[in-house]
# Entry
Amino acid sequence: MDVSIVGLGAGQIGENDVTEAEAAEVLNRPLGLGVALIDTAAPYGLSEERTGRHLGRRRDESALSTKGGQ
# Structure
């Protein structure tokens, strides 16, 4: 698997005060610039849900990383 050397930490888009339009911009712009690694996790609020919603149609353009635990 090839991914970009730079990734996007998607924790910020999980915050309740971030709008859906802002989340879409934060997620889609980096892909357009060649960033192909998105880091998200369940503890990041709405981050995983928004990542799926806004990048689902672009799934073949990026790799997702997440965390597991207790």
